[in-house]
Structures are given as C-alpha cells and as structure tokens.
Write a structure and sequence with these properties.
The structure is a homodimer. Chain A is an alpha/beta fold. In chain A, the strands form 4 sheets. Chain A has a 6-stranded mixed beta sheet with strand order 2-1-3-8-7-6, sandwiched between helices. A 5-stranded mixed beta sheet of chain A has the order 14-13-15-16-17, sandwiched between helices. The longest helix of chain A has 21 residues. The first copy, chain A, is elongated and about 80 Å long. The model of chain A has no long low-confidence stretch (mean pLDDT 94).
C-alpha cells in the first residue's frame, strides 16, 4: 500500500484546548484511493521542528501533507521551512500576488504588505488557488515524493484538497470497507455475537468502535479479498438484522427522518429529561419540517400537567419518572399535535436527583401511534450529558423500529 | 521552558474515525508545571515507526510520554519498541505478574497466557500500577530523559498519570494563564479592539482562538512576567467589558444558569429554528430544573398559532420568521408558563427555505420579562448546524446581558 503522512502545523494544537481534526478528513479521502496514513505529527509554529518533521516524513512516506502555517504573519513558517528543507529559494509568483490583491480589492480593501508573503512559493512548486481565504496552497513534487501544503482552516483546506490535490494522487489497489452502525447495544455483546464470523477472517480486518450509545463495525479488505469481506458482511447482516441502523455514514436521526418521509408520517415529541435534545437531533436533518410538527419540553411537573394533561394524582402515585407518565406524554402530544406518531421521554439525568428506587440514569421512553402505545424502561450509566444523549438515542431507535414494521 | 512531547500509539488513530485526545489532558497537567509540549506524534501499532518516533523525541525533548500499545495482544508493541530503542532486554517482573494474576483471580478468571507479556518491563524501568485495567505503565529514566509509558484508555491513563507520574516531573517556573471567553463577536473585531494592548506585550503570549459563535483570548506568561500579563488582563477587561462572559472554563449556559439562580428568576423558551437546542443547552446544566420551567418547539406555523396564540394574520403579513412573531413567542411562552423570563427564537436554518428577502441564516431572537421586550435580528453564515448553534448562543447571550443589568 502507498504511504502518506500528515503534518499539522500550529502552536494552538499543542495547547490543552485544540487538536488536529483536518487529518480525519484527509485520511478518509486517502483511504478511498488505497493510500494508508502511517503517521501524523503535530508541531508548533517553529521552523526548526517543521524541518525535522519533514526530514522524518520524507524518509517514511511517498505523500506528505502539511496543514497550516500559510497565513501572512511572522508565525506562519511553512513556506520558509519547506524551502529550507528542500534547499530551494522562495520565489515571488506575480500572478498569485495579483490574485491575492484582487481578493482584497473585491472587498474594497487594500492588501496589507504582510500578505505579499503569501505569494512566495518554494522554487519548483505550483500554487493551489484558495477560493475561501487569502492563503494559497502549494504542490511540490520533489525527491520522488509528493508534498502538499494546505491552509489550516477546514473550510479553506477541504475544497482546495478536493479540487486541486486529489487528482494528483496515485491510485493504489482500492480498499473495500464495509461499515455497519448499530444503536443501543453494548460493544461486548456485538463483539460476541459476531465472533463466529470475525474469528474466521483471513485477509479482512475487523474493527469495532464504540461511541456513546452507538457501535460501529468495520470490515476492511484489500480489493483481492473483497469476496471474503462481502461474504462476512452478509453473515453480519443475518446476525444483527434490524439492529443495524445504517451501512453508511447517516446519523440515526437521518435514518428516522427518511423512514418518516417515505411513510408520509408526522411526528411530535414530549421531552422531560432530554430537555430539547431529541427535538434538536430530529431538526438537525435538513427538510425535517416535512414530518416534525412540534415538541414540548415539559421540564417541571406543572408543565406536564398543564401542557399534556398528565393527571396530578398519576404523578403523585407513580412519580414523574414512570411508565404511566411517559405513556401519557406520548399519547397526549400526539393527540394535541394531531401527528401520526408521538414520543414521550422522562428520566433522571443526574448527577443529582436520584433515589434508591429511582436512580440516576433511569429513563422511560414511550411511543404512541394510531395502533399501539409502547414504553421501554432503561438504566443508563454515565454523566448527565451521556444519559441525555442515550435517552434521545433510545427514543429515535424506538421510532425507527416501529417505522420498519410492515 | 522544559520540553515534553507525546507519542500516541494505535492504528485506530490513523483511521478517519478516531483521533488522539489523551494529549489534551496531558498537556494541561504539564502546562501547570511550566512544561511545554513541543510536538505530538501519532503512529500505528508498528514497532519500526515507534522506534523512529522515540529517536526523534529523545533528540528534542526532556520528557517523553507514550500512550497506548501496552495491552496483551501481538499488536501491542510499546514495550518491545522501547527495549529495542534503549538497547536493553525485557525482563519479567514477578511481583507485577502476581498483581496481574490477582486482578483476574479477583473476578474468578484465569489469566490468559497472553497477559504474561504485560509483566515484562524494559530493564531499568519501574512498573506503574494500573487500578482500572490490566496494562501496567512503565517509568524509565534514561539518557538524562524521562520516559513514561501509559495505557491508551483515558480512564486507565488519567488516574495512573495523576497518581504515579506527576510527582516525578520536574517543576519549572509555573506559567500564568489568563482566559477570556467572549460570545457573539467576530474574531477579527476582538483582535482589533485588543491590538493596543496586545501589540505592547513583551514576555506575554497572546492567543486568540475562534470556535462557533465563541472567541477565546489567552494571555500566557512565565511567572516572572506575571505582572505584565495581569496588567494586560486588566486592560482587556476594560476594553471588552461585559462582552466577556467568563474568565474560566464555564459554558455560556452555565453562566446564564448561575445568573438565573442568583436572581431567583425562572425561564421558559419558545423555539422554532433551533428545534430544541436552546432547551437542550439550558438543561445541560445540572440543577437547571431550579430555574427552567418549560419550553415549546413550535416548528410548524400551526404549532405557533395553537400553542402560543401567534395571530394567523401576523404570520400571513410578516412571515413566521419576523420580529413580531419572535416577540409574540417570547411574550406568550412567558405568560403561559408564568416565568420571570421568556425567550423566542425563529429563523431559517437552511440549507433550503431561504428567499432573497429572507435568506438562510436570518434569525430573530426575542426576550420578554416583566419590564421589557427586546428583539434582535441576525444574519448568521454557515451550515444548518452552525446557524442553529449560533442562534442558541445569541439567545443565551441576550439572556445573560439582561440578567446582568442592575
């Protein structure tokens, strides 16, 4: 496999507050062409360290991508470091200077003298236009290696990479990657269920990645082993069935949105412990107004009583965090909103407010439609943030499963 | 300043799906002792590359911290790479073996043969106990450098670092760091306003970090320049005034929550384009039920009319995204909920739904209390996600400013 590596440049990425994220995007596009990232280095705005990173990279990899350090300030040293490392001069590109000046003129500004520096290119390099900022990129083929210098901000870097760099990359044997995303199952359970398949893989790599309330399974194979991987994927589908919510990169809310759209059904939600997060996730999907009618965040008992007609004595008897209250929330919001489906979520997000009978993490999720009302009880571990997210995930998954029924 | 660097080991961090986050935690604790992280390297489970990373690190830094690669599998090669690099043998530590065996016995399990490898320590090293997993850490002082080998999972790494490593670090001159966080101002404007102060700094480093709808300003100085930095901080306070929402690490919703609590006021919200995000952020704060009464997500026009009594002809005349509708939403939710404050947010989150008169990113935020009703109009750039977040930020900031008035 062809080897690439990424050098991220910027002192802010050596603070406790920022990390490099550009490399994730770059890695994805490299992988699509069968190119493997073998190392990532993060250095500050420090010419000496950048030269050292380039030395190591040129020994190791055929493709070297630097992000950052192309701005107009004295801290921006990528051009200088590359020129020093390759032992070539920096040369003013008059055409490039014009295009930078033009960018400023367009906005009725005079180009500050500092920006002149951005028109300097290490000899032998080609400028890469930046349509979203003043820092041009640079492409250099040197010592039988390919070197790309890209700006740091993702909204400048990504379009430049897509438009002016990807076509310059070699194409190695493509990699076959099959993804499965699973909601509401523990990692160890998925791993165990898949063991009969994964233990027999020869050339296919199996990876399981866990994030909050979501498991990703990856099968990765060189093109020659595609058949083995596809065969394994077929078995994974049989084992996990509808617990897989997507084989792509969609979020759970995208999948639920597509199902609602396809079935031409509408939705309303009544949230207590999720506090609006469920509505937020549903409305993260562009076009969600086609199916999402409204929601209520009934955080107080009074709000539950007034807005959803939850009987006061039901709360007194069972508590606000209970199956009857969740059911009433789902049925009432559905009725008030005249939507096809209604969802209710009530629970204890913590870290305060738990009792021995009703501990932090106890959550009830209910779903009502014209045929059935369902309620599920969960005990979620973790922080307030995690419990809220997992509760919203449970609600979306309950919706998904209901919408998939014939 | 003393120099440290971090090597993160693990092939998963070279995929498009995972990145190193341990280094942020480590950087924070190093900085507290005046130690500066000068580089970070991420390599796969590859002995040769790890040796190469160690070679570079030992040239550059006095403190080298490796995370990951200490597990029991053949992929876990950190011990082997360190032994190869230092040219020392791996030696079985019988006491360590016993403690690993004990961990398994405790859970009624037999230690798999593979875990024996975790009791092997490069000669000259000291084992660091792991109270949260089977992989012990290692500390080695060699070639006048300090080398720490730590496990990859944060919940194993962090306690080990805190308990067994921090005390071994040298203490350099402590660093003085002053943070300011500012909402709803463009980075360039903050930078410009502060130029008279920042251009005169001698020993203090000024950094400005921008994320969505939030700017962070850092003043960083060695202890000897503390006075200069404090003097500059005083000037920053004067220039930015109440546009600074915190000098700590609180989120804007934490600050608003504290103000509501202190003033013993209650809050309700009516959201359209934010779709629940505002409620979600308010309820991310533990104890928010003390002041957050309820919210409505009036996504459809019908919901606005039915739940908030927005007059139908007001929507027909001004549109659902308009100042009168935002005002009505804020006033009505406040009245219905009988809270001290009410907030209304309506806008076009996009990417569809914009018109020349009402483009994507147009957002109205209104606030009502017993004395005043205010409404603000914004044009936010960016994606749906960004517009939703910025709108929620604007609402929280409007609340904050109102609550700060005498």
């Amino acid at each position: 496999m062809l080897k690439a590596e990424i050098i991220a440049i910027g002192s802010e990425m050596l603070t406790p507050f920022r990390s490099d994220t550009n490399s994730l995007y770059l890695t994805r596009t490299l992988e699509e062409r069968g190119i493997r990232v073998v190392a990532k280095t993060i250095v500050g705005d420090d010419q000496k360290e950048l030269v050292r990173a380039l030395e190591v990279a040129f020994v190791r990899s055929g493709i070297i991508i630097c992000t950052g350090g192309l701005g107009p300030t004295v801290d921006d040293l990528t051009r200088e470091a590359v020129a020093e490392f390759l032992q070539v001069p920096l040369i003013l590109d008059p055409e490039l200077l014009q295009s930078i000046e033009f960018r400023f003129r367009e906005r009725n500004l005079r180009m500050p003298e500092a920006n002149r520096k951005q028109a300097m290119i290490p000899q032998g390099g080609t400028a890469l236009p930046n349509h979203h900022g003043s820092a041009p990129g640079v492409y250099i083929a040197a010592r039988e290696k390919q070197l790309f210098l890209l700006p740091g901000p993702p909204f400048e870097m990504e379009p430049m990479w897509e438009r002016y760099c990807v076509a310059r990359l070699p194409q190695d044997e493509p990699v076959y990657r099959q993804i499965f995303r699973i909601a509401m199952m523990p990692e160890s359970r998925v791993d165990e269920l898949l063991r009969p398949v994964t233990s027999e893989l020869q050339e296919t790599t199996y990876t399981i990645l866990a994030s909050v309330a979501e498991i990703e399974v990856h099968l990765l194979a060189p093109d020659r082993a595609r058949e083995e991987a596809q065969h394994a994927a077929e078995k994974v589908r049989k084992i996990l069935g509808n617990r897989i919510f997507t084989e792509g990169l969609e979020r759970l809310e995208d999948v639920v949105g597509a199902l609602l759209r396809k079935a031409r059904r509408t939705l309303s939600v009544a949230e207590s412990c999720t506090g609006g997060l469920l509505g937020h996730r549903i409305t993260q999907v562009s076009g969600s107004s086609a199916y999402f009618e409204r929601g209520v965040i009934v955080y107080s008992n009074l709000a539950k009583i007034e807005m959803l007609h939850v009987p006061e004595d039901m709360i007194a008897r069972y508590g606000a965090v209970s199956a009857p209250v969740a059911i009433t929330m789902a049925e009432q919001i559905r009725q008030i909103s005249r939507t096809g489906l209604g969802v209710g979520v009530t629970g204890i997000a913590g870290p305060e407010g738990g009792t021995p009978e009703k501990p932090v993490g106890l959550v009830y999720v209910a779903l009502a439609d014209e045929k059935v009302t369902r309620v599920e009880r969960y005990n979620f571990p973790g922080t307030r943030e995690r419990i809220k997210f997992t509760a919203s995930q449970a609600a979306l998954n309950l919706l998904r499963l209901r919408l998939m029924e014939p």
